Amino acid sequence: MSQNWRLDHSSQKMKPIIQYLVGAASVVIIIAGLKAGAGILNQILLAFLLTMCITPLPEWLIKKRVPKGLAMAITLVVVLLGGFLISALLATSISNLVASIPEYQEKLSVFYNDLEEFAQSHNLNISDLFQKANISPERIIGLTQKIISVLTGFLSSSFVIAMLIAFMLIELLGYSADIRKGKRREARHLKWLTGMGGDLRKYVSITAFTGVITALFNFFLLLILGVDFPFLWAFFSFLMNFIPNIGIIISFTLPALIALITLGWWQAITVVIGSWLINAIVENLIRPSFMKERLNISLLTTFFSLVVWGWILGLPGAVLAVPLTMVVTRLYKDLSEPPSQPLESHL
């Protein structure tokens, strides 16, 4: 009897351990699947993110008593024409940038050698520091080419993303209209997806709006200073606006570097200071007027999510890191809490 009791007691102790191991194995399998399907998954996630940014437009038109069909048609025309114009400008900028890379690499090597000679003339040895930090012209150009490849991939899949946005808009607006007319009852999982607690949608919409403002100011700043490819770097700053705190540093690094090797120190410093001032104005004056409460995500969480999602999905994962973290956090919270009503009542 006592032996059976010991066996039952030990098996009860093993159950939580087995559950943890099964959970950990499931997480590993899910992450492997995400990495394997990153190509198509990035397109779907980017389309969903842009859909969240665009949805307020048709909803605003419908509130202004514009017929639903006309509001949808106007939105689709804006999406397709705007997407075509942005894609054409990006394609031209990227093509010219690729053609200019050999020239930039040569100028960067000359600047790198001049900097080493200047340091040696003042009894400073920075060669070891650069080697330990893995900083070299080839390394910098390689990172630039990776960013270019991501933007090129975005352009090559722009048609698929545009179609996904169109279908998502039609589905979401049609579903919302049927709910208002009483043609269907609101399913719990669809309610969670469309609402997302209001936080994700509000964050994405306001971040996109402030990102457009930041990109416009950066475009005119770079255009006035004469930095090459201002539209490309302005669009890049829009994407980096979805990465709080860290994105601003990433966004001005490349244009400041190009300004340094092509225009000089003062222009590069102006790019850095100007970009920082633009971001400070938008973050502290414009954003608070739309978002009363700041995003409750710490700098450590932001950096950790950036590393994790960037490792799983690449650079698009870094752009989507905060929204994806918000979704996972909300999903875990909702699954951990017992439902207030049975699922059948929502179906």
Keywords:
347 residues; 83% helix; disordered C terminus
Description:
The protein is mostly helical and 347 residues long. The chain has one domain (8-340). The chain has helices spanning 2-36, 38-54, 56-63, 68-121, 127-132, 137-156, 158-181, 188-195, 199-225, 230-240, 247-262, 265-290, 299-313, 315-319, 321-336. It is globular.
Question: Could you give a quick summary of the protein structure above?
Answer:
With 347 residues, the protein is mainly α. It has helices at residues 2-36, 38-54, 56-63, 68-121, 127-132, 137-156, 158-181, 188-195, 199-225, 230-240, 247-262, 265-290, 299-313, 315-319, 321-336.
Our measurement of the CA-to-CA distance between the termini, rounded to an integer number of angstroms, reads 50 Å
Instruction: Please indicate the count of domains.
Output: 1
Low-confidence stretches: 342-347
The tally of beta strands, per DSSP, is 0
Largest sheet: none
Structural class: mainly alpha
H and E string: HHHHHHHHHHHHHHH
Q: Which percent band covers the strand fraction?
A: under 5%
